Amino acid sequence: MLKILLSVALCTLIANVSFASPIRIKDLVEFDGVRGNDLVGYGLVVGLNGTGDGIRNAPFTEEIMSNILERLGVNVSGEQFRPKNVAAVFVTATLPPFARIGSQIDVTISAIGDAKSLLGGTLIMTPMNAPDGQIYAVAQGTIIAGGASAEGDGATVTQGVPTAGVIPSGARIEREIEFDFTQLKSIRLALRNPDFTTAERIEVAINNNFGRVVSRMLDAGTVVLDIKATRELSPAHALGRVENISVEPERKARVIVDQRSGTIVMGEDVRVSRVAVSQGNLTLRIEEEPLVVQPNPFSEGGTVIVPRTRAAIEEEPGIGLAEVREGTSLSEVIAGLNALGVSPRDMIDILKSIKAAGALHAEFIVR
Known about the structure:
The chain is of the alpha+beta class. The protein is 17% helix and 42% strand. The protein contains 6 helices and 24 strands. Strand 12 and strand 13 (222-226) form a beta hairpin. The radius of gyration is 32 Å and the shape is flat.
């Protein structure tokens, strides 16, 4: 049996996730109608220090620059622009629920041409549209770039992503979403992680808090709240009371592994049935060591290269046949494998084999 030892390999992160403590309903569900809306715009960044778009490679930059100048009363018909301090960008943001005219939101700026950096640039007034084609916000301001770059005649160095950045509070809302929240007769609570047990617990907790039946579970991902039955002044008052009710959620037994970083994350309910584990590695080594043979002095012979090859098979030490008994938790198995010095990649292969054998009772996710 693989026993728990205190030494744990630092290269592997093991997280035993426990949901013993109650969680607020607001952290478990999304309220129907309370959601954000995506916005997007196409604009121009100016003031770059020679790191903007090459106009020949990005003709759309010249087009938008001409349009902006003409709107400002500058006639540029027939002119040829060759500046290096402008860049065409996409501007994205999320319009939060219940946002009002005049409030400000953050925006993200991303270059779409061959600009090398947006560091120090300023976004010119850019309208932002929703999927319905209407303008809901206008963005403008100085960009905070996410990196830096420098180059010389023979080398270039880049840190982070200098072609993307943000403008905190860079867009001002000019139009509101038409939605009368006060007229709702019922509100659906959509679980972020659908589960019948969790949905039932939410239903019971809400009804117990109000002292009467005001909610009903529809399925594993939906609980409907009857606003009239709550006897509150408005839907906002009802949700303000509901969202702070605490519920202990239920979670599936799940194991998530990341092969690139060697990370293993598991829930506390993961169990392993009786199974035997044996692991080892074979390494085949082939080395070429050609031998050069020279002829004797004043002889008629020539230089000859004699091939020499060394071939060997080495078996690296692995895990002998180890037995995992019934009811052992996966965290105990991982701790034992760590104590034996098993590498993260080999550990993931072992977990895959245990799952394939039907002994790992959990959802197994590989990223």
